[in-house]
Specification:
alpha/beta, five-stranded mixed sheet, four-stranded mixed sheet, 11 strands
């Protein structure tokens, strides 16, 4: 891509990204040196971590090992995307950028990121299903730092009272049977988030993919069966109507009341799960015919943005390698409540904390939302999908009608 074409593409993508959130221009303080010494900028989406946190300590340690000073700034995820696009357009990107995995394809298409091949970043040990979220056009644009995903939390007390063995829940039929038994005992079955945002699509995808459906065919018979499953749960009173407006946070709050047998939620709720007033467990979200369903991956990639002074890349490579080596990944992913992207580290996590075993299995079965070569096409598919879910669950359309409309909308974009 020529410099002129790259600038034009960056400008176009930046305008689109700023439509939702306006972000001011950011000046880089990365200095003028081409390599070694000086300050190197790192931007991440972890504003919750203060300067005295383990995360920042790791960044500083990696900087010291590379012979530089790390200047780190944490941004909200949406704000970070917009700032990264603007900085790339203006030619003052940070040296290392850590971003949510669906954003990688957007930045890559805009010409804002270097490839792992260009900077000799070793990704050979990374799980292919997690690495796929950072790939576009056959090239890889970063290294996964960890992943979160979805599974089913369950209330042990309610299942025991209803005579349900959680190990018996292995497919859609057995799950629906378990929910029916719980309802017969006067309690509620399952809660999840079906809100009309990306959260709704994120939570629907395990059932969508678990049916065998593909995102390139939203109105397939398999896709209709997944939406019909959710619709039938609402009709039968096995799931509450509140799911239509639930975020993943409010869905968790419903589960925390102790009145629900199951809740679809993520690894990020593990700390809150330990504070529940009842015993809980987790199982993988089942696929229609059995086995774990592919759930979407969350989590970030560590990438190296395009720089005017290419001599800086060698030190940036050292920083990324330090942040993503096996020993540091274990510490970082424990801090972030993530599952590591490396099999050997995943095994260590499951050994040190047996409660993570289900999550490790879920991550191994998971897939990236922008995978299957969808890249920047994914947002154009996701919005019609969550709109269809809303239409069907609210009773406005049948699952077939809603998904037929979604496919037409996705195709026209």
């Amino acid at each position: 891509m020529t410099g002129l074409n790259r600038r034009r593409r960056l400008a176009a993508v930046a305008v689109l990204a700023l439509a939702a959130v306006t972000a001011g221009a950011c000046s880089s303080s990365s200095g003028d040196s081409d390599a070694g010494g000086g300050a190197y900028l790192v931007w991440d989406p972890y504003p919750q971590f203060a300067d005295d946190s383990d995360w920042v300590a790791l960044l500083k340690k990696c900087g010291t090992s590379a012979g530089v000073t790390v200047e780190r700034t944490g941004y909200d995820t949406t704000d970070l995307t917009n700032k990264a696009l603007l900085a790339a357009q203006q030619g003052n990107s940070p040296d290392v950028l850590i971003v949510d995995n669906p954003v990688i394809s957007t930045l890559a298409e805009a010409g804002a990121l270097t490839t792992t091949e260009e900077n000799k970043l070793d990704v050979s040990s990374m799980a292919p299903n997690l690495l796929g979220a950072g790939q576009s056009g056959g090239k890889t644009y970063g290294v996964p730092i960890g992943a979160n995903t979805l599974a089913l939390y369950y209330n042990k007390d309610l299942l025991t009272t209803a005579g349900v063995d959680p190990a018996s829940v292995t497919d859609w039929a057995s799950l629906t049977a378990a929910l029916t038994k719980v309802k017969a005992k006067g309690k509620k079955g399952i809660t999840f988030s079906a809100i009309g945002t990306e959260e709704g699509s994120f939570q629907f995808l395990p059932w969508f993919w678990g049916s065998g459906a593909q995102l390139t065919s939203l109105d397939s018979p398999q896709a209709v069966s997944a939406l019909t499953l959710w619709k039938d749960w609402l009709k039968q009173g096995l799931a509450p109507n509140s799911v239509i407006n639930n975020t993943q946070t409010t869905s968790w709050q419903e589960f925390a009341t102790g009145n629900f047998a199951f809740a679809e939620n993520g690894t990020w709720q593990l700390a809150n799960a330990e504070k529940l007033g009842f015993s809980y467990g987790t199982i993988a979200i089942p696929a229609s015919a059995g086995g774990p369903a592919p759930a979407p991956t969350g989590g970030e990639f560590v990438s190296i943005p395009v720089q005017k002074k290419t001599g800086r890349y060698a030190t940036s490579q050292k920083l990324v390698t330090c942040l993503t080596n096996a020993d540091n990944l274990l510490t970082t992913d424990t801090t972030l409540s993530y599952v590591a992207p490396v099999t050997a580290v995943q095994d260590r996590q499951a050994t040190e904390n047996p409660k993570l075993k289900v999550w490790v299995e879920a991550v191994r079965a998971a897939k990236g939302r922008t995978g299957d070569n969808l890249g920047t096409k994914y947002p154009k598919i996701s919005e019609p999908l969550w709109t269809a879910v809303q239409a069907a669950l609210s009773g406005g359309k049948s699952p077939q009608e809603a998904l037929t409309g979604a496919q037409a909308s996705a195709t026209s974009k």
